[in-house]
Specification:
The complex is a heterodimer. By secondary structure, chain A is mainly beta. In chain A, 0% of the residues lie in helices and 55% in strands. Chain A contains no helices and eleven strands. In chain B, a hairpin with an 8-residue loop joins strand 9 and strand 10. The chains are: A mainly beta, B mainly beta.
């Protein structure tokens, strides 16, 4: 079993829809949770960063962490064609500077 | 802005060739990483370094070696390239201790024929 599971999709939604992405994990020691966005043939760029449980909002993006269920989510409101990308979840425990990544979910927002 | 620069974006090499992938970061980060990314497998850590001349194996180090002679530069070496090493290679860096953001380069697409 992989340490981090992420539905690879692909996910196709119409412009303006809410996009919901999620990851589950098995290591209860994970404390830092991130979402990266990766455009085609580019490197991943950090989108959201959350420490421990709770919600974080940044513009149209909301990240949620539920440590009791070992489940994290990313919501994109009012999705735009420019949001079409692969979204990777990543996480790490304390005292470890390496990240464990999900396989990535490819999202297409149709105009 | 943090900048992680991978000097070669696209390479085509022959089986058995020695391949060097170079990475430079401009933020004085202690930690540097090499990942490979394959469809359906996500990002897998090859090697990382937490200081000059220090290195540790990641999840898939076989067939690779690394060099970090200067803090800002981290090189990935394929001693004898094979077709199963055809992939996208991503260099990354981060500052200090755990929980800090990892910044990625643009990636190097390597094809071994």
């Amino acid at each position: 079993q992989k340490e981090v599971e992420q539905d690879p999709g692909p996910l196709s939604v119409p412009e303006g829809a809410i996009v919901s992405l999620n990851c589950t994990y098995s290591n209860s020691a994970f404390q830092y949770f991130m979402w990266y966005r990766q455009y085609s043939r580019k490197g991943p760029e950090l989108l959201m960063y959350t420490y421990s449980s709770g919600n974080k909002e940044d513009g149209r993006f909301t990240a949620q962490v539920d440590k009791s269920s070992k489940y994290i989510s990313l919501f994109i409101r009012d999705s735009q064609p420019s949001d079409s990308a692969t979204y990777l979840c990543a996480m790490s425990p304390p005292n470890d500077y390496k990240l464990s990544f999900g396989a990535g979910t490819t999202v297409t927002v149709r105009a | 802005d943090v900048k992680v620069t991978q000097s070669s974006r696209y390479l085509v090499k022959r089986t058995g060739e020695k391949v060097f992938l170079e990475c430079v970061q401009d933020m004085d980060h202690e930690n540097m990483f090499w990942y490979r990314q394959d469809p359906g497998l996500g990002l897998r850590l090859i090697y990382f370094s937490y200081d000059v001349k220090m290195k540790e194996k990641g999840d898939i180090p076989e067939g690779y070696s690394v060099s970090r002679e200067k803090k800002e530069r981290f090189s990935l070496i394929l001693e004898s390239a094979s077709t199963n090493q055809t992939s996208m290679y991503l260099c990354a860096s981060s500052w200090g201790a755990s929980g800090n953001t990892i910044y990625f380069g643009e990636g190097s697409w390597l094809t071994v024929v």
